[in-house]
Design brief:
- The complex is a heterodimer of chains A (103) and B (168).
- Chain A is mainly alpha-helical.
- Chain A has one domain.
- Helix content of chain A is 44%, strand content 10%.
- With 168 residues, chain B is an alpha/beta fold.
- Chain B folds into two domains: 9-23 and 36-43 and 109-168, Hypothetical Protein Ychn, Chain: A, CATH 3.40.1260.10; 61-107, no CATH class.
- In chain B, 34% of the residues lie in helices and 16% in strands.
- Chain B is built from six helices and five strands.
- In chain B, strands 4-3-2-1-5 form a five-stranded parallel sheet.
- Chain B is globular, with a radius of gyration of 18 Å.
- Classes of the chains: A mainly alpha (103), B alpha/beta (168).
Chain lengths: 103, 168
């Protein structure tokens, strides 16, 4: 674990760059992490991030299937919003732990 | 020899599924979906009995073998006798139990799994030779099946550094 300054705020992050304390997250931090991942956040992105944060706060597991059925986005749009590795990128930008799901 | 050889990340994976057992098909699907999730270019090639997994009228009715499967166990962990597996209805019962357990882990049915892989940019192919042999046409296959291709077409897709082929 180390400390990193993102958007002018000191936050604790893992060596992969995931926030260790979800309460330190702000929209500005999200924008900054997204930029590092090459993503410009839109309102749609924030809707997904909110869903992801709520799920994690409720202690529920995250899967791409689950997000695709959430009614917020379908799986295809989710892949388009966070290209490459969507679950990893979305959780990183949402300031929640890296998911451990295989599916 | 240079010992500081640079690590080459996996960029493209091609999975070949040749069997129709529930667990063999899911092994291929889980690996394919997992690769797509990691942003790895993914192609899945179904051949021989594996074609069942992409054939519309069979894909959601795959079974797990209860005969000739030494890995089978009774619910308590005792060995599963081969003669028991041969009794009518046992295979269906075991399969239904497997599906229930898989559903608990949020593993989707075969058609939905293929759709997830496609949604992430993964590509699904059927083997031409096997399709000819089983007299199956494009319309018999699920809509996620991109094309029916030859072995030569398959190898032509495996170009580039960081490509791996896995046979399940």
């Amino acid at each position: 674990m180390s400390t990193k300054t993102i958007a002018g705020v000191n936050v604790d992050v893992t060596e992969d760059g995931y926030l260790t304390d979800a309460s330190q997250w702000t929209k500005e931090i999200a924008k900054e992490i997204a930029k590092e991942e090459g993503i410009e956040l839109t309102d749609k992105h924030f809707e997904v991030l909110e869903y992801v944060r709520n799920k994690v706060a409720a202690g529920e597991g995250l899967t791409i299937r689950g997000i695709g059925k959430s009614g917020v986005v379908n799986a295809k749009t989710f892949y388009q919003l966070f290209p490459g590795a969507p679950l990893k990128k979305a959780t990183k930008i949402a300031g929640v732990p890296k998911p451990v799901s295989c599916i | 020899m240079d010992t500081k050889e640079k690590k080459q990340p996996l960029k493209k994976i091609l999975l070949i599924c040749s069997k129709a057992n529930l667990e063999d098909v899911y092994a291929a699907l889980v690996m394919a979906n997992g690769a797509v999730m990691e942003g790895i270019e993914t192609k899945v090639f179904f051949t021989f009995f594996g074609l069942d997994a992409i054939t519309k009228k069979r894909m959601n009715h795959l079974h797990t073998a209860t005969v000739g499967n030494p890995g089978m166990r009774m619910p308590g962990g005792l060995p599963f006798p081969t003669w028991l597996g041969g009794i009518p209805g046992v295979e269906a019962g075991v399969t239904s139990m497997m599906k229930k357990e898989m559903d608990k882990l949020d593993m989707p049915p075969v058609d939905e799994f293929l759709e997830l892989i496609e949604a992430g940019g993964g590509e699904i192919y059927a083997c031409k030779l096997a399709a000819d042999m089983f007299k199956l046409k494009k319309e018999d296959f699920h809509e996620t099946v991109k094309d029916i291709i030859t072995v030569g077409d398959l190898y032509a897709m495996c170009d580039g550094d960081g490509t791996q082929i896995v046979f399940t």
